[in-house]
Every structure is written in structure tokens, then in C-alpha cells.
Amino acid sequence: MTPADIRQSVLLEIEAGLEALKAARALVEEGLYRSAMSRAYYALFHHVKALLYTQGFEPRSHEGLEHLFGLHFVKSGRVDPSSAKLLARLQKYREQSDYGLVTAFTRKDVEQELAEIDLFLQTIQPRLTGMES
After folding, report:
1. How buried is residue 29: exposed, middle or buried, by Cβ count under 10 Å (0-12/13-18/19+)?
2. Given pLDDT bands bounded at 50, 70 and 90, which one contains residue 131?
3. Measured between alpha carbons, how far is 105 from 96 in angstroms, rounded to an integer?
4. Predicted local confidence at residue 64, as pLDDT
5. 44, 120 in Cβ contact below 8 A?
6. 101 vs 18 pLDDT, higher one
7. Enclosing H/E stretch for 38
8. Is 103 helix (H, G, I), strand (E, B) or coil?
9. What's this model's pTM, rounded to 2 decimal places?
């Protein structure tokens, strides 16, 4: 990927992540907590993917994204290990939301995860800001 391609990919992932975050919040307001949890995962997924693009990594799957993030950002100390736990937890919740018909989340559950996503986004924002211009 050229630097321009990387920059464009980062921008597209950020846009997708922000849209998923907005959707998650709207779904919470509608009381659709399973769907909101799924969208919360994708909000985080797209931002982590943008972060990986800034370093030239192109994950090809959800598992690949989790692996690359853990290897190049968590183990290297660039982000707190709690970020990897958040990603893994939300991936599990997304699968439960989409495929586990008996899974139930509360408003509090989703809002707590959204708050953790917000904190994560604050920590990675400086790394992404340089790519947005």
C-alpha cells in the first residue's frame, strides 16, 4: 500500500467505526441492546483496524485483527493490555448477540462497554490524527 492508500484506508475505517458507534448509541436508546452490543464491537473493530493500518498491517479476518493488535500494540506496550481484553470480550459478545438467541444484555451492560470504547479511542486518537490529514 502506498502512503496515500494507507491514509485513505485509515479514514474509511475511522468513518465506519464512528458510524457503528453512533448506531450502537441509537440502538441503546431504542432498547435494542443485543444489536447495540454488536455495533459496539464493530465500532472498536474498525478503529483497531485503522490503528493497524497506520503501521502497515492489513488484517484479513477478525482473528487476524486480534492477533496483530495483540502482537504489535499490546505486547509492545503501545496500548494497555485491557484494550486486548476489551476487543476479545466484545468479539464474544458480538457473536452471542448475532447468533445466541437467548443472549440478553442490559442498557447498563452496553453503556459500560461504550464507555470503555470511548476511553480506548481517546488513547489511540493521537496515532490516528496524523493519518487523517
Report:
1. exposed
2. low
3. 10
4. 94
5. yes
6. 18
7. helix 33-54
8. coil
9. 0.92
Task: Report whether 40 contacts 117 (CB < 8 A).
Answer: yes
Q: Which cell numbers in the block locate residue 57? A: 498491517
Q: What is the pLDDT of residues 87-97, one digit of tens each?
A: 999 999 999 99
Q: How many residues does the chain have?
A: 133
Closest of 130, 123, 113 to residue 81, by C-alpha? 123
The C-alpha atoms of residue 131 and residue 133 are separated, in whole angstroms, by 6
**Phi-psi region at 15: left, alpha or beta (left = phi > 0; alpha = psi -120 to 50):** alpha
CA distance 109 to 7: 34
How far is the C-alpha of 63 from the C-alpha of 68, rounded, in Å? 9
User: Distance between CA 8 and CA 18 in Å, rounded?
Assistant: 15
Mind listing the pLDDT tens digit for each residue in 37-78?
A: 999 999 999 999 999 999 999 999 999 999 999 999 999 999
Question: CA-CA distance, 73 to 92, in Å (whole number)?
Answer: 20
Q: Which residue has the cell 468479539?
A: 91
